UniProtKB/TrEMBL annotation:
Pfam families: Glyco_hydro_100 (PF12899). Invertase that cleaves sucrose into glucose and fructose. Belongs to the glycosyl hydrolase 100 family. GO terms for biological process: sucrose catabolic process. It catalyses: Hydrolysis of terminal non-reducing beta-D-fructofuranoside residues in beta-D-fructofuranosides. This is Alkaline/neutral invertase. Its EC number is 3.2.1.26. Keywords: Carbohydrate metabolism, Glycosidase, Hydrolase. It comes from the Eukaryota. PANTHER family: CYTOSOLIC INVERTASE 1, PTHR31916. GO terms for molecular function: endo-alpha-N-acetylgalactosaminidase activity; sucrose alpha-glucosidase activity.
Length: 577
């Protein structure tokens, strides 16, 4: 069959830029900072782009300001099986009846786009003949282990790709199935987990004889280290908002079950305890960095996702009944959390100099060194790494401890959630440009920096053979982070940074068969234990490309900055003048 280029989205060029068990036995049948008007950009309604302009920073402003007034209603498309997808992609006559990428007739697509869509559709998982997610990887050369499961965090870029392509059905099904799994009892040994915990993953077992499907969830009891996924609940809330913004359908979020699901997640996070900080205290390995890497305490990734989930829940939660109390608690926590993170986690040249000059053993509320950080504990590498222009949120802050490592997901999600101020977002972009070789290298992007080696690696990771230096979560390079970088760059008004990273990815990611991660100081080598055809590497690339083509997609995942994030105060009944 001849190749038809109109079957694929056309990219714009950017010139400057338990196992717990739920069984179902039913039978089934076969620019510069500030240059972007973010208020308009956050409008998620799809629109038709001008076909003859390149997307530099100046034309990006023109497109955003001129093209968002004519909404196109979201399309409810039929989900196709992987066996049908290639024919559908190549035949324009089939496009009218099946879900395939949107048409952009004026531009040549990159060949990787066709490859990516085909691979993404092959990864779709069906439950009772309905699509409910995508498996982590489809590598025929390796044992599946748990890579044949649908991971909550891994599905997010796949969900965004389907939403951007006008295919919300799989996302809605996933949200409802994860919500159903949340309601089952979760036990590890003799201990019962909190009611609001979302699963880390689930898998679907098909019985062709009985014609039944069984869904099996993992809440951490089968995970390496037996750590519950703190981030799963946050990603679920964030994805629920993305679905609502993309489709305009509020009925899902307004369902009593969804409202209850959000409240259960937030109950775990907002419960009173012994905490003296508004940040969340977490175990090691509780998020994307799911092995022992010294992130225990208050990791930046969790705090950024927590902040974004709170803001997303605030926009989705109804004020009736228990919702009113939760909204008030959310407001108070957002105010405290934003202050704490911007004040104590932010590091630039000035703040580093202040920490370097800290006095110790200070007492009382007038203390400057509030966490009693010993200046001699500052690692030597940070003095050379941090430029005069630029900054970032460091990895962790807790009593007598500051983890100065760079963690990409936490910083990019801080930009997208507006936990970072516009000035801080620009400083993070400045750092990316100044330290491109260290943070991006040959294959975007470093999940953390720098790598731990020698004695530090042995003590912190417990001699983990998977997290050796410049590999996996120990400063390995993960292509999936490309979508977060792209979204953050668009929001910060610096799309040319994302374009540069995408161009690097396009030189080899598809040729290397979409690996999970890359090894080496510059990310030149396919990871020693990396799975091929890793779904979120595929989806992350597609989402990045579609965001650059249509920046209004950012409205699904980005939140505008609120200048005065203060809780609404009410006067006590006992107050007298």
């Amino acid at each position: 069959m001849p190749f038809n280029m109109y079957s694929f989205p056309k990219p714009l060029t950017l010139e400057t830029t338990s196992e717990a068990l739920w069984k179902t036995n039913d039978s089934h049948a076969p620019g510069d900072n500030g240059s972007v008007d973010f208020g308009k950009l956050m409008d998620p309604r799809p629109r038709q782009l001008e076909s003859h302009h390149s997307l530099d920073e100046r034309s990006l402003n023109d497109i955003i300001s001129s093209g968002l007034s004519s909404p196109r209603p979201p399309r409810q498309l039929e989900t196709v099986k992987s066996s049908e997808c290639l024919e559908a992609l190549l035949s324009p006559s089939i496009r009218t009846s099946v879900s395939t990428p949107r048409e952009y007739h004026a531009f040549e697509p990159h060949p990787m786009i066709a490859d990516a869509w085909e691979a993404l559709r092959k990864s779709v998982v069906y439950f009772r003949e309905k699509p409910v997610g995508t498996i982590a990887a489809l590598d025929p050369t390796e044992d599946s282990l748990n890579y044949n499961q649908v991971f909550v965090r891994d599905f997010v870029p796949s969900a965004l790709a389907f939403l951007m392509n006008g295919e919300p059905e799989i996302v809605k099904n996933f949200l409802l199935k994860a919500l159903r799994l949340q309601s089952i009892e979760k036990r590890i040994d003799c201990f019962t987990l909190g009611e609001g915990v979302m699963p880390a993953s689930f898998k679907v077992l098909h019985d062709p004889v009985r014609k039944t499907d069984t869904m099996i969830a993992d809440f951490g009891e089968s995970a390496i280290g037996r750590v519950a996924p703190v981030d799963s609940g946050f990603w679920w809330i964030i994805l629920l908002r993305a679905y609502t913004k993309s489709t305009g359908d509020h009925t899902l979020a307004d369902m009593a079950d969804c409202q209850r699901g959000m409240r259960l997640i937030l109950t775990l996070c907002l419960a009173d305890g012994f905490d003296t900080f508004p940040t969340l205290l977490c175990a090691d390995g509780c998020c994307m960095v799911d092995r022992r890497m010294g992130i225990y305490g208050y990791p930046i990734e969790i705090q950024s996702l927590f902040f974004m989930a709170l803001r997303s829940a605030k926009s989705l939660m109804k004020p009736e009944g228990e919702g009113k109390e939760f909204l008030e608690r959310i407001d108070k926590r957002l105010h405290a959390l934003s202050f704490h993170m911007r004040e104590y986690f932010w590091l630039d040249h000035v703040q580093l100099n202040n920490i370097y000059r800290f006095k110790t053993e200070e007492y009382s509320h007038t203390a400057v060194n509030k966490f009693n950080v010993i200046p001699d504990s500052i690692p030597d590498w940070i003095f050379d790494f941090l430029p005069l222009k630029g900054g970032f949120f460091i990895g962790n802050v807790s009593p007598a401890r500051m983890d100065f490592r760079w963690f990409a997901i936490g910083n990019f999600m801080a930009i997208l959630s507006s936990l970072a101020t516009s000035e801080q977002a620009s400083a993070i972009m400045d750092l990316m440009e100044e330290r491109w070789e260290e943070l991006v290298g040959d294959m975007p992007l470093k999940v953390s920096y720098p790598a731990m080696e020698g004695h530090e690696w042995r003590i912190v990771t417990g001699c983990d053979p998977k997290n050796t230096r410049w590999s996996y979560h120990n400063a390995g390079s993960w292509p999936v982070i490309l979508w977060m970088l792209t979204a953050a760059c668009i929001k910060a008004g610096r799309p040319q940074i994302a374009r540069r990273a995408i161009e690097q990815v396009e030189t080899r990611l598809s040729k290397d068969q979409w690996p999970e991660y890359y090894d080496g100081k510059l990310g030149r080598y396919v990871g020693k234990q990396a799975r091929k055809f890793q779904t979120w590497s595929i989806a992350g690339y597609l989402v990045a490309k579609m965001m650059l083509e249509d920046p209004s997609h950012l409205g699904m995942i980005g939140l505008e900055e609120v200048k005065r994030m203060k809780p609404q105060l009410t006067r006590s009944a006992s107050w007298t003048a």
